[in-house]
Amino acid sequence: MPDLSRSAKPEDDIGTIAWASAGGGPKRDRSAELPSGADIDNPNSRASQRFRTIDASKNGPAISSGEYTVGWVCALPLEMAAAKGMLDQIHPDLPQQDPADHNNYILGQIQGHNVVIACLPAGIYGTITAATVAKDLLRTFKSVRFGLLVGIGGGAPSRTNDIRLGDVVVSQPTGTSGGIIQYDRGKTVQDGKFQRTGSLNSPPQVLLTGLGRLQADHMTEDSKIPQYLSELVQKSPKMMRKKFSYQGSSNDCLYQA
């Protein structure tokens, strides 16, 4: 994983940790970044194994709510669809959930971790709504250890830390910050500058140690994102529709930040 202190490049796919979001920005041609790679007809291929696992799990018994340890909250149905597409397995719905829990869920597994995915109510967004969804999630899934808010956001182009369309941003603590900044936790002062009035805790240590491993992997290995996207498209061909496919450089515009 690249160092955020330098400008992002096309091969950089910096990822998201603990209630953060991803961005979009200046022009860049990504037409070559989605290989046809995965062979789903080969029983030994990773893609074939993933597809068979998903098909086999749909009619299996429901997994207990106590076995889910990762909560994934999406702001938009579009984001929830992408999250569902990245599951290695899709689990049956629970037979029942806490009466005070008004969320609807997609359940599944990624790399052996049982994941529960929730979406904000259609047309009702914001930090209060997100907090309510997270609180309700914990009513039913009491064993969830980590909460992730992963979604699409605006680009932040700059000469030093260039965040571009398709990059994934991961936060980490610094000397003066826990790694996550709440955009409305502060006030605008003279000259239009934003002054923070509080701070949030750092992500859990187990996630930060995983981030260190991810950084090391990015220094020594090629990105696996093209492989994952190829598998996703073969598994869910409808995701090649306009909302999910590359829009072309003419639609990737640079605006004054």
UniProtKB/TrEMBL annotation:
| Compositional bias per record (Polar residues), positions renumbered to this chain | 42-51
Region (Disordered) residue ranges read: 1-53
Q: Mark out the compositionally biased spans (Basic and acidic residues).
A: 1-12
Q: What terms describe the molecular function in GO for this protein?
A: catalytic activity
Q: Which residues form a coiled coil?
A: none
Tell me one GO biological process term: nucleoside metabolic process
Task: Check the record and name the InterPro entries matching this protein.
Answer: NLR-like (IPR053137), Nucleoside_phosphorylase_sf (IPR035994)
Q: What is the name listed in the Swiss-Prot or TrEMBL entry for this protein?
A: Ankyrin repeat-containing protein
Species of provenance: Colletotrichum fructicola (strain Nara gc5)
